[in-house]
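Deliverable D2.4 — example input (structure tokens):
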């Protein structure tokens, strides 16, 4: 990496709104007068008087702040959807995931659940279905879910990714067309970040892109005084919050399991932590450790520790999140740091390239968001399953998605020259219970709510986020994701049980040996012995299970 040579930061492609909060209690218009001529209220379709005012219970994971208990209930876009569909939502907001699994154990779950079921529920989406918690959406698609039916017909990748191996559709979520550049950017909100002002101070005019460039920059952070306090107290890179994983793509591996692609395009499932690439990763990080370039890798790896080091003007680089760059949010890292360091600037870094110059992308760019929405068997028992399907399907359609994303035309947004724009005052901060939030979030908050949407999220983000946030997401979307096993490649409940047992056996040993290799207490001449031990603990069986799952995924 040469000084005064590197290219400028990437141009703005889109904008994303991730500010917290919605719902304000401030009413400008009675949303009960809103109609949508394209659909009828649910009770008019069933022609049952008892269905007038039918209520669907809906669980969401919120937070401990008071405003979360009012957040979704008072959002005007959601209230309009309920009025139009004739289906009322009884939001049941959980303050954390602590009572998520007990809810199932007690068989006390609602009609609809929106949560990170993919990682929180044992057996994931397939397990939830086989445990008779979620229902098969296929049974509702013809009569009650025309929008969902059209999506899976028009977007084969999304159809494949949402479908279980037996052909069942059991969940929906915020959906993305992974072939679309804007949608790729919308899904890329995490990556490596660096102090741009430190780079400038030391004579660099862009960010590192290779491991050699990273080493050069971090060494310069250590040997010089970029924070300007006349002390050598800089921590070149803070690896709290598992930032060490963000360098794995430079060696062609993912954080479990990876896909190796040969020159003919043939794919093979591999376990990254027993590859030669991982050995080179360990060699590089050992050098960084010996030169005191890394901080917080082996202990105290919390988000709180990361924030502490960044705001102390000590960390030169770290695991970044796009909202940290949002200069319009007073709670963002950049604004907090500027209270003491007014000249502070952040920059997003591209995923580091491999030795031969190829760029893999570590971002989890999938066709659906981590938060998934299911209709439960409780809805069947309550007689609300069809109403829930009708309600969710409206959210997936064009008009419902607009209400979820932009709010109400004439109030929160207007259409000018064919483009939606927020109305004046929507960016104003207002008091909402115990929180201060942008006024636009009293109408809609597409990323925080994470209810089913399609086709408008990236457009909204492009129009309503600041330049720095844009640049970060665009940077982190670059690169080839084919080496990553899609989140849609789901294991069967039996396979998940097997994988969990294998990981329990392997992970502690891998973690222990990673620390020993990097700190130098174990020489890299022992790497082959380490690999043999990981294989003994089940690595080959692990690869076999994932290979079977991946082959089934490709056959969908």
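Example output (designed residues):
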């Amino acid at each position: 990496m040469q000084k005064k040579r590197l290219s400028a930061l990437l141009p703005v492609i889109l904008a994303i709104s991730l500010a917290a909060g919605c719902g304000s209690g401030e009413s400008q218009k009675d949303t009960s007068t809103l109609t949508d001529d394209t659909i009828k209220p649910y009770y008019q379709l069933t022609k049952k008087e008892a269905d007038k005012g039918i209520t669907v219970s809906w669980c969401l994971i919120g937070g401990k702040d008071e405003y979360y208990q009012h957040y979704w209930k008072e959002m005007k876009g959601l209230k309009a959807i309920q009025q139009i569909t004739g289906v009322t939502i009884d939001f049941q907001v959980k303050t954390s995931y602590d009572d998520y699994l007990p809810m199932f154990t007690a068989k006390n779950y609602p009609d609809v659940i929106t949560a990170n079921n993919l990682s929180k529920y044992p057996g994931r989406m397939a397990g939830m279905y086989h445990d008779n918690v979620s229902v098969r959406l296929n049974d509702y698609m013809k009569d009650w879910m025309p929008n969902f039916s059209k999506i899976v017909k028009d977007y084969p990748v999304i159809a494949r990714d949402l479908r279980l191996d037996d052909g069942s559709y059991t969940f929906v979520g915020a959906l993305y067309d992974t072939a679309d550049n804007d949608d790729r950017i919308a899904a890329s909100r995490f990556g490596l970040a660096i102090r741009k002002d430190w780079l400038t101070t030391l004579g660099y005019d862009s960010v590192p892109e290779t491991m050699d460039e990273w080493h050069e920059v971090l060494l310069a952070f250590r040997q010089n005084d970029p924070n300007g306090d006349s002390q050598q107290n800089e921590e070149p890179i803070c690896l709290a919050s598992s930032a060490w994983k963000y360098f794995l793509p430079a060696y062609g591996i993912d954080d479990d399991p990876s896909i190796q692609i040969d020159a003919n395009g043939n794919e093979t499932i591999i376990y990254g932590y027993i590859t030669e690439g991982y050995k080179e990763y360990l060699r590089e990080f050992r050098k960084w450790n010996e030169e005191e370039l890394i901080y917080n890798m082996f202990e105290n790896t919390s988000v709180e520790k990361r924030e502490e080091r960044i705001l102390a003007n000590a960390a030169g680089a770290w695991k970044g999140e796009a909202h940290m760059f949002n200069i319009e949010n007073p709670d963002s890292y950049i604004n907090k740091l500027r209270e003491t360091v007014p000249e502070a600037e952040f920059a997003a870094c591209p995923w580091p390239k491999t030795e031969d110059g190829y760029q893999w992308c570590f971002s989890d760019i999938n066709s659906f968001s981590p938060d998934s929405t299911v209709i439960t068997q409780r809805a069947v028992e309550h007689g609300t399953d069809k109403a829930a399907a009708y309600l969710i399907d409206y959210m997936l359609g064009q008009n419902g998605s607009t209400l979820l994303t932009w709010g109400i035309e004439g109030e929160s947004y207007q259409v000018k020259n064919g483009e939606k724009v927020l109305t004046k005052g929507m960016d104003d901060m207002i008091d909402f219970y115990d929180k201060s939030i942008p006024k636009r979030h009293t109408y809609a908050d597409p990323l925080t709510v994470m209810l089913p949407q399609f086709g408008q999220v990236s457009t909204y983000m492009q129009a309503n986020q600041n330049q720095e946030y844009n640049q970060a997401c665009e940077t982190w979307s670059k690169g080839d994701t084919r080496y990553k096993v899609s989140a849609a490649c789901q294991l069967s409940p039996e396979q998940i049980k097997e994988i969990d047992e294998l990981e329990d056996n392997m992970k502690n040993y891998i973690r222990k040996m990673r620390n020993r290799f990097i700190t130098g207490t174990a020489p890299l001449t022992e790497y082959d012995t380490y690999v043999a031990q990981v294989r003994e603990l089940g690595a080959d069986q692990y690869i076999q299970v994932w290979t079977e799952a991946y082959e089934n995924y490709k056959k969908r």
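The first helix runs from residue 42 to 46.
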